[in-house]
Amino acid sequence: MTASDLTVRTLTPAEHLDFVRRQASVSFLQTPAWAKAKPEWRAESLGWVRGGEVVGAALVLYRQLPKVKRYLAYLPEGPVIDWDTDDLAGWLAPMAAHLKQQGAFGVRMGPPVITRRWSAAQVKEGIADPEVHRLDQVAPLERSEAGARVVAQLQELGWRPQAVDGGFAAGQPQHNFWIPLAGRTEDDVLKGMNQQWRRNIKKATKVGVEVSAGTDADLKAFHDLYVHTAERDGFTPRPLAYFQAMYDALAAEEPDRIRVWFARHEGDLVASTIAIRVGTHAWYSYGASSTEKRDVRGSNAVQWAMIRDALAAGADVYDLRGITDTLDSDDPHVGLIQFKVGTGGEAVEYAGEWDLPLNGLLYKAFDTYMRRR
Q1: How many C-beta atoms surround the C-beta of residue 105 within 10 A?
Q2: What is the mean pLDDT of residues 343-349?
Q3: Record's SUPFAM superfamilies (predicted)?
Q4: 3-110+353-372 sits in which CATH class?
């Protein structure tokens, strides 16, 4: 059978979830529950069907243009299809036709396909080298032939790569940092961390930092610390209602999908995080830390607890999510990269987000508007 045997139709949330459960893992942004976490977008579960069986799926989020009933169809970190195929057109053409019928003037998707990898040591060396300013100046540990094949096919099919920091929505990161867990023990992971991380974990234990998992009733405590972190670090915090909606939606889909974690020292909350897991992939999604008592290393302690929890759940990857591609030691983002690099994991580059215009005039107007914002 070939991709030309495929048809595309709307799935029920139950059908979509059944497909997700049959995969080793998919992005949490491609679960049917994520639609409820994004109520400002109209959502649709989409399925690729062959011989009556659902063989691919996507969560599509539709954002309406002002004053007209036309939409950007957005598939964050999706769709979940056979990306190893040499016939991507057979998968993407029926999707585009369906979305156009739904009123989409353009499609934006983020293929969950890795193109390059770098080791923690390589990233560290890049930061230390005054001649190196960006990750792509460092020769990668691995270049993915499958990833290159996907990129080549998308270009041939008329899809357009998007700037990482632009987009109708806040685009998903193209570069992530994660810790491979498959086949490793806690000791293996700990030994892979740098000396500073191991020392900080040990210190947190010695001074009595206690880490525990909470429930949705504890989200207010997380959010208070998160707002404090935003004020200190100069970013705009999301409202508590956003985290409540996200928690309620994901927890209703699977009881162990999302968890909020707390690190306390002598009763004081010093760090808090939100973790998400879908199958064998675990994510560190949001984090917060107090300005006081930073020396008790609550952030390291809570990360270590989440890593151990991911290992116990059988996860193959602990994903610390996005990093910028800057390695310039003067860049304010480099501190976050150094924090993540200390875990001993690896930097991975995805194929990035791609657009397909379906209505040339509307897409051009939209693209011009986004560039001028």
Answers
A1: 22
A2: 97
A3: Acyl-CoA N-acyltransferases (Nat) (SSF55729)
A4: alpha beta
Going by C-beta distance under 8 Å and a sequence separation of 6 or more, which residues neighbour residue 48?
6, 7, 8, 54, 55, 56, 57, 79, 81, 91, 94, 95
- Residue 53 has φ and ψ, to the nearest 5°, of -105, 135
Query: Is the torsion defined by CA of 194, 198, 203, 204 positive or negative?
Result: positive
Alpha carbon 164 to chain centroid, angstroms: 13
pLDDT at 329: 82
Helix/strand/coil for 65: coil
Residue 98 sits at the vertex; the CA angle it makes with 93 and 102, to the nearest 5 degrees, is 145
pLDDT at 259: 98
| CATH classification code of 116-144+175-350 | 3.40.630.30
The answer to whether the CB of 172 falls within 8 A of the CB of 34 is no
Strands 160-161 and 142-143: unpaired
> Smallest Cα–Cα separation from 55: which of 6, 102, 17?
6
**176: how many CB neighbours lie within 10 A of its CB?**
21
- Name the amino acid, one letter, at 82: D
* Residue 71, C-beta contacts closer than 8 angstroms, at least 6 positions apart: 42, 62, 63, 64, 65, 102, 103, 104, 105
Range 39-49 average pLDDT? 96
Contact predicate 159/96, CB 8 Å? no
48-62, 96-110, 159-173: least confidently modelled range: 159-173
- Asked if 115 and 149 touch (Cβ cutoff 8 Å), the reply is no
Are the CB atoms for 279 and 143 separated by under 8 Å?
no
Q: What is the C-alpha to C-alpha distance for residues 74 and 353, in angstroms, rounded to an integer?
A: 10
Give the mean model confidence (pLDDT) for residues 294-313: 97
Least confident of 164-168, 215-219, 235-239: 164-168
The domain segmentation of the chain, as residue ranges, is 3-110+353-372, 116-144+175-350
